[in-house]
């Protein structure tokens, strides 16, 4: 029988599984957050970037004379001014290979364009001045002489014969011809298939639209030769190494990255940008800090964009409807330069996520990654994971229609069964746990699937079309890399967690504190979190790929165990007992205590930390503190999954589409904080709805960005979404200490197919079986009118 005086740790007020409000919220809501633009350093200067107004052209000259005469301007720098200082370049870091085994054709991007401009917004110079306004005035006075060249913005068109060529060393603009899978076996499966479904799918380009524009301040200490960059990021340890090794080309200890609060990123702020070298270069030459904060127009042009794929998707099925093989043939738009992980989305992440939660035995992915005269593309929430799930769900829904089968039954038939775990997918992934059919059934019940006909009839009575859609999904998270888990007992009675992930809106402080509170029994309210100082880190994988809790949480769990081991030694001395007789337990309030086994003699962990600190002449075997600095080793990726059910209403006379009901059931493994997880799911769902219904980057034939402001680019608002039903059906992960699976990007993975399947279902009475994202009112109206006229 359990001791009735001991707490049920799963129900601790601040333990794992409790919906504890975010510690960050009072600080942020009261305006006490400290973002990069809030920082002002003594003597700081201000910078403004000079960007190309043309998408493609040869630079004949840059006249900076007028800019230097603008009052307040201190200096003007061009690409030529940065040469000769030993700086490196921005480049793709992925070791990807072409189908023939040769490496991808990389691009060494300088901070400022030297010979050509390759997209509207390409930085060619920057101005440093005493004030921000003076810097902007100086930037406007810089004259760039450019011989304009033809531009190309669509990947398939850039790969066509006769298309404008962006680089001499990249024929056909093709940086990577990627292939995965056994083409012969896949072809054989398609050859013997009873039915093949084919869809041409456009994965529309989106602007990231983080609430906080990018901002940075560069400092240089002439005495130590050390650079400091204050910047919003997704992880200071990785950015420090990129800036030191690739960009500045100095030893890593010569670079410090500091990140405070960050107003969103979604992948966009993960890596270095040209502005960062410019600021540090100017700070070194001018001997003063240099600050730059982008404006929204600059963000639209220069922040990395997301998505942008043209895909031919094919699914082969047998007579019963079992999937035999899936094949993707894709064009992936890289933009004008290769971002750090640019080709990942349409290659490895397509491969790993097209499987979803279905037992498809064969996968083939062929993707040509193409450079175009557009803003570079990089990771955006999910980074290929939502797309893979979207492609398969659209194929499966269409296959059911073509074969005259129930789409629910088709999903059940193809689900990987629980007894198949561990399941090795043809992508190479090994799924450790899950019950996909149970998740589906729970979602159907929660969404009142059987009550849909009545709701459809009610909508029809009001002149509206109503449709429903399912978004089954399974995504492969990024594998947790080496992650720091440092625990420090401070003199003021607080406990500090130091780790290398970074909160850019998720709310790490609270769940990490919950993990530590449950693992070590230190008071929840005494726990603090340090993440944004590279000088405090010896490892850190940053935040991205839905892995933060799995990485930092595991590091905290392991570090806590090391604290307990040190504490047993210290408590043995304090309590005058043998180390073997010291047990660690929690009292009725859940607080940690070290006790002599079989006695009531004990000491609390916080008191023990204080007594160690103030001990006089401690024996040699006594720990100097309970502090631990630990690095968690790598762990496999995890596989969050779920099922979203969406209902939409469409006005056939205007094409306006409304999401009117939405339910999701998710398997995120062990959930540390349900409140935060629901918030993450809601945010991802809204971003998916935005891409599905309204977000779209448009370029002119000349490469001008036509959707360069919020007058031309639509984002979803609260009025565009209903209340969300959110339920859990967890199967704990078996490959990390917490049993967590990650949740940050899953909302997008479920919402893209759920919304688009619902729209196609609503339009099916017109014979419409596919429509591309975004399903704007104009597109929907045109599709209806075309069907009526046919």
Automatic annotation (TrEMBL):
GO molecular function: iron ion binding; oxidoreductase activity
Domain of life: Bacteria
One Pfam entry name: MoCoBD_1
Keywords: Molybdenum, Oxidoreductase
Entries under InterPro entries matching the protein: Ald_Oxase/Xan_DH_a/b (IPR000674), Ald_Oxase/Xan_DH_a/b_sf (IPR036856), Ald_Oxase/xanthine_DH-like (IPR016208), AldOxase/xan_DH_MoCoBD1 (IPR008274), AldOxase/xan_DH_MoCoBD2 (IPR046867), AldOxase/xan_DH_Mopterin-bd_sf (IPR037165)
Domain Aldehyde oxidase/xanthine dehydrogenase a/b hammerhead: 30-150
Protein name: Xanthine dehydrogenase family protein molybdopterin-binding subunit
Source lineage: Bacteria, Pseudomonadati, Pseudomonadota, Alphaproteobacteria, Acetobacterales
